[in-house]
Each structure stands twice: as structure tokens, then as C-alpha cells.
Fold this protein.
Amino acid sequence: MDIVAPGQKLASIEEIHDRRNIHVHRSGFADEQYQHRYPKAGFAAGDFLVVDEEYFLDALRQLDASALHIKQLLEKAHPTPPHEARRYNKGSLHLPSEPESLQFVSFRSLSPGAVSKYFNLEKQGADQNAIDNLVVWTSHDGNTIRMIIGGNANDVRLFRRDLHLAAKRGEVESISSFKIKRPN
């Protein structure tokens, strides 16, 4: 299966993967293999591989396009997804080049309705117009729902407020959350 979307280069995905490995296994410092494989990156062995906001957002866009491409190929090959599958809930939307807000959230569903509402993003409540303006990646392993939410700061705030109220009602239990990118 081809893992790159049309117009993408496999070398770009490989560089993102290799830079990730450098950060995980070498504390972010380039080795000779990285230097030799990616000379255009401009890093020498021993240099710290910077992951600034521009690089991070570009990597997210590339991985998003690749993941969506793989998802579409798999859905074409296997039209009926298994129950509780991981999915990209907003179809073929793409992360804007400059999202105001990007956040990770994970929580446990304590009621069947919460799975439908948050995993399937069913429209409920007063602030559901916000969902239409968000890009949301969701996974659910039968126990934990994990989301990456991107969009304008107000819509993300409304979505998070709805999730907070669901926790107060006992529908969900928060596990963790953090802001990947804060509004300016």
C-alpha cells in the first residue's frame, strides 16, 4: 500500500519519522546517519534538530494527508469498518495552515450516549455549530476516547466547555488534555 498522498514525497514522511526517532532515541541530536541521509536539512552530526512551529505544523499537514490517503485506500478495500475503529471524523477536511488553536484531549466514556456524541460527533446541545468549524481526529479503543481538535479559538473553547459540562454530569471522565498550539 502506498502511504503517501498524491503530490507527496516518501522522503518527506521518512524525514519526519527519522527526526522523531532522533528526538526519542538521541535526545534530539543529529547523528552521522541523519546528516548523510538529509544533507539539505543543513544539520551536522551533533547538532540539535530544531522542531519549530513551522516545521511542526508542516509535519502535521503531511502526516494528515498521508493518514487520510491511507484511510481512503483502506475504506475502499474494506468498505465496512470494524466496530470501535479509529477514524478521522471530519472526512476530507484538512488542518488550516495557521489554526488558532490545536489541542489534545483524552477521556473515558461513562455513558453510551457520550460515545455517540464525542466519538461520532453527533450534533447535540447549544454549541454544536462549533463542531462544523473544527477539524477533529478521534480514536476509541473501547475504553478511552482520544481527540486532536483544531480550529478557531472560540469554537475549540465551546467544544471544550461542552466536554467539561459532560464531565460534571458524569457522562465522561477526563484523563488528560494539553494545548499543542495556543491562540496568539
